[in-house]
Input
Amino acid sequence: MEFSGKTAIVTGAASGIGLGIATALAEAGANVVMADIQKDAVEHAAHRLSGTNKPASRCALRRPRPVLRSASARSRKRRFGKLHIACNNAGVPMHGTRLVDVSAADWAFVIGVNVWGVIHGIRHFVPAILKHGEAGHIVNTASVAATQNRRGTNQGPYSMSKYAVLSLSEALEHELEGTNVGVTALCPGPIATNIALGSRNRPDHLGGPQVRPTDEAVLGERLARTGIDPKLVGERVLDAIRNGTFYAFVSAVPADVIRARHRRIEAALETRWTTSY
Ligand SMILES: NC(=O)c1ccc[n+]([C@@H]2O[C@H](COP(=O)([O-])OP(=O)(O)OC[C@H]3O[C@@H](n4cnc5c(N)ncnc54)[C@H](O)[C@@H]3O)[C@@H](O)[C@H]2O)c1
Output
């Protein structure tokens, strides 16, 4: 796909991977609608990006549902033209607590942003892209955590949410077969972003912003030490869109763990209890 003159929306675009994707798209000539819950940060980011060869536009709203409503409304079309690319990227972490101790509010927060965010994106953006008949693409940010549960980090709720993103992406790919709209499940390993501070925007009805200094410091330090520049993730996304790549891994991946998981599933299929269909 040629990016020049195309319109893209990126959620979670004020920081990290979303900003990396928005930057790469804008530098490739796309008009980018930047959506984020952090109003000032996304305005600042959009202002900085407007120096690239195609101006980036912003959509700075406080809550995810208005973000998506606005993005799919007539006003977006008037301001930004036909939508071609949607990157459902906004997400928050959830780690450091055993499943039995995770509160209902924590579950609601991680599922609300990481799973419902992608569901809203599919519901609103896919029809908008299909409507005009031109080529399009959906990128859902999953994670390497969508393919295995990392031992020792107690990030079961986060991993579960990313398995859901991968499953949604696979189902969407099936449903879009025969159209000119592609799907990518972006599966980054460690990326140097602000995700460790992901609870900073937690809504009041789920307990408000929360700071867990130890957990955040551990994750933040690990990502700063091992994570790659989010701009490279933006380049990975462009490559995936151009080549129609579904599983877009980037950065370090626990390949042996993923293979071992798949081998375990394969072995479990070979029993007297199963038949094929
Ligand atoms: N950093 C990593 O190592 C890593 C690895 C794999 C996957 N991911 C995924 O990448 C995505 C982006 O995370 P990041 O690492 O860039 O973190 P980040 O915190 O740097 O950026 C996330 C952005 O999403 C925004 N956001 C949060 N909730 C929102 C909501 N409800 N509506 C709109 N915007 C919202 C935040 O304000 C922030 O700007 C997430 O889905 C995350 O799970 C990150």
Summary: The pocket of nicotinamide-adenine-dinucleotide is lined by residues 11-12, 14-18, 36-38, 64, 67, 89-92, 113, 117, 141, 143, 188, 190-191, 193-195, 198, 201, 223, 227 (CB under 6 Å). The chain has nine helices and seven strands. The domain at 7-269 is CATH 3.40.50.720 (Rossmann fold). The longest strand covers residues 181-188.
